[in-house]
Amino acid sequence: MPLMNERIHAKELRVIADDGTNLGILDTAEAKRIASEKGLDLVLISPDQKPPVAKILDYGKFKFENDKKAREARKKQHTVEIKEIKMRYKIDVHDYNVRLKSATKFLQAGNKVKVVIMLKGRETQHMSMAFDLLNRFKEDLKDLAIIDKKPSAEGRNVTMILASDAPNN
């Protein structure tokens, strides 16, 4: 919260009026008097300047408008999520195509896709088949995605993360 009104202890201030005009360098008491006559607040904008810069404004309205701008900015920004697609290395062709279609949809939305191949029991002996499946998945999405994290074994799972190749995401 910026310093305002009685909290300002500087001797002199460069004061900007509520209409944006520069009132020049004034004594702090004089600036406070001008602000109170107008029914507004004296808010310290740049305390590091010599002399510090203060502005005469309605602090409640100022705070509301800044919060509104921040809310609008948060609304417009897109957070990248990591969507997970799980499959087994003995996957059927149709199921593979469904996973591929889901991955395509996620990548086009600008999200990252974590592809996980789960291995159970003795299937861990066939880890090379899981890597082959991930490489096939990567090849099928090569025009849409780039590799964010190369295929790697993590315990009983083999994972890879793909990111959207679109320049605007």
Note the main attributes of this structure.
169 residues; alpha/beta; Ubiquitin-like (UB roll); Translation Initiation Factor IF3; 2 domains; 4-stranded mixed β-sheet; 4 helices; 35% helix; 32% strand
Using the 3D structure, state the CATH architecture of the largest domain.
Answer: 2-Layer Sandwich
The number of E-state strands comes to 8
The CATH H-level superfamily of the largest domain is: Translation initiation factor 3 (IF-3), C-terminal domain
Task: Report the major sheet.
Answer: 4 strands, mixed
What's the arrangement of strands in the largest beta sheet? 2-1-4-3
Number of helices: 4
What's the rounded overall pLDDT mean?
90
Structural domains: how many:
2
Shape: rod-shaped
Radius of gyration: 30 Å
Q: Give start-end ranges of low-pLDDT stretches.
A: none
> Which CATH top level class of the largest domain fits?
Alpha Beta
Task: Classify the helix fraction into a percent range.
Answer: 25-40%
Give a brief description:
The chain is of the alpha/beta class. The chain contains 4 helices and 8 strands; from the N terminus they run ββαββαβαβαββ. The chain folds into 2 domains: about 70 residues, Ubiquitin-like (UB roll) (Roll), CATH 3.10.20; about 80 residues, Translation initiation factor 3 (IF-3), C-terminal domain (Translation Initiation Factor IF3, 2-Layer Sandwich).
Question: What would you note in describing this structure?
Answer:
Helix content is 35%, strand content 32%. The mean pLDDT is 90. The protein has two domains: 5-75, Translation initiation factor 3 (IF-3), N-terminal domain (Ubiquitin-like (UB roll)), CATH 3.10.20; 82-164, Translation Initiation Factor IF3. It is built from four helices and eight strands; from the N terminus they run E-E-H-E-E-H-E-H-E-H-E-E. The chain has 169 residues and is of the alpha/beta class.
